[in-house]
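User: Structure tokens for both sequences below?

Assistant:
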Amino acid sequence: MKLRVSAVQYHLRTIQSFEEFAYQVEHYIKTAEEFGAEFIMFPEFFTTQLMSIGDYQGNALTIHDLPDFTDQYRSLFINLAIKSNTHIIAGTHVVRKNNKLYNVAHLFYPDGRVAVQEKLHLTPTEIEEWNMAPGEDLQVFETSKGTIAMLTCYDIEFPEIVRMARAKGADIIFCPSCTDDRHGFHRVRYTSHARAIENQIYVVNSGTVGSLPTVDFMRANFGQAAVITPNDIPFPPQGLLVEGEINQDMIVTTDLDLELLYQVRERGSVTTWRDRRTDLYPDWEAIKEIPTRL
């Protein structure tokens, strides 16, 4: 099974209306279409661009205003996924549920269905400045091209949750990200490589670039899209299929061959997934049938 993926280095800039946001989004979708992409991923928090629209007094909107755009956001991407006949991982968008804010990754299917995955691990800024709540459940998603998971930015830095996603059948982790400096960027990038090696999976990264001068905590962005592989002979030596130019407004596209994953899991130079010692460190697959001890 092969599939073509595109990852967006989304350029954050001040806008005046939702229509401007939609126009910019459609530009990336059409670009990915021209390259024949079947999956298109936007970055984490790219809809914070909507906060730069501001209110009637000219002040930027706050994170608490962002959920008010949810219906427009969903309608836009449902229509684009159907029109383009692609799977769109539309980054993350902040939604309100039971008076709490969640950072939620959205998967828009070509047939109009929508699936969501709340971010499970929150950064101090998300908790202390934006008063957000973490998700409580990990999902994997069946598509016509295989099983995927969506783990957002900080999530990829926790090996246990990626082990769970792989045990549930995911071959590709789509990891939308938003980092404001080199330190954060490299944390996500290096751990994405580690997760690909540990679990013999693909990891797709996307990131925000540009800036929103009026929006708190979105004034600086350091981003680069990349598609990461296990480090084994069928793949590039650095475990990197493609990457963008750092901090440039662009999109990267490449093909993923799932059969290569299955081959290296069976007879690769190393077989890290098969060789994990669940007798020493039980993981989700090994403990899911074991009753909880008092």
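Moving on to the next sequence.
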Amino acid sequence: MAKLTKSYIDRLPIPPRKADGKAAQVIYRDDSLLGFGLLVGSGGTKSFFVERRVNGRVKRMSIGRYGHLTPTQARIRAQEMLGTIAVGKDPMTEKRAAHAKSISFSDAFEDYLAVRKDLKPGTIGNYRKCVDGCFADWKPKRLIDISKDMVEKRHSEIGSRAPARANNAMRVLRAIFNHSMAKYEDEKGQPIISVNPVDRLSKSRAWYPSERRRTLLKPHELSAFFAATEALTYDVTRDYLRFLLFTGLRKTEAANLQWSHVCFDDRTFSIPDTKNGEPHTLPLPDYLLNMLKHRKRFNCGKWVFPSPLHDGPLKEPRNAVTQVSVSMGKPLRLHDLRRTFITIAESLDIPAYALKQMLNHRNANDVTAGYIVADTNRLRQPMEKVAEFILKNSKDTHRSEEEA
């Protein structure tokens, strides 16, 4: 043991690695301040530490690296930490609490995204747009400084222009705060935020009323839809829009379909990456089977619906959707095609469990559904019935014959 001075530390040798190649460490303790020491690693780093019994257990707490701190600075910090321990406190707990209280909204948001392993890239992108568009000026603020009044005012400001956007922004904000309440604690192990400030909107009933969209294609509009899609310049977009209508898939699920996911022998296709995380397999009705066979003859790439602009899948074809909307004389959104599929299936009296499987819906509270083993072949007739209904009302049955 010796006093940890600069000249003494500079003379200390670097320990060699262990025989198995792992790093080695040597401890040097200060003889003038009990509990103060230096750790020298085989990588050349030298780090100051304090070692003391805290709450019945011996703890070694890092002070900082030699070079970043002088021996004098490290000794002063060690004396402060040892004094804190002497009065029954844990300096590391206090340090974590101080960090938690200083965490910025931006850091809390990034931490939330890092922890949520189930979020898809598209969802993360939407969350970032939401935060950048609605809370950009809050990013450098400490999380604990964002008050209920601030939340209520910001909700009202956004809502004066876009009520639905205001509600969505607050849902994202609520999720970030819920995560932070569970993670960031004070020195007593209590949450640094005891109440989610977004909860005021519920208690004061300040949420903007919103109606679920019910737009879809009615049977007499299917013919106009087929005519409008037939007029599109890019046949991939035409087939993509029709594929959505005949399958009820979400737009990204269909756009990311690969040829490796299509089995012509079994007359099925699969979506491995879905919204609820469960792979989804459906049978191909005759119309879609012929469509995909026709596409495969002229497509040697990876994607069933390739982008015309880059080596990847088709992105949301906004211009094409606008063109179809103008041609039909009514607004059209891609999710309208999913609603149309669902409505047609229900009108054909397809059993509820079959319909759930066709849409890849799951209900955590439905105990009976947990005992039903999904059989793709059982969905073949329901899928064909939906396709027949669409074709009957679209007056486009000749395409199935021509492509065959």
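User: Anything stand out in the second?

Assistant: The mean pLDDT is 88.
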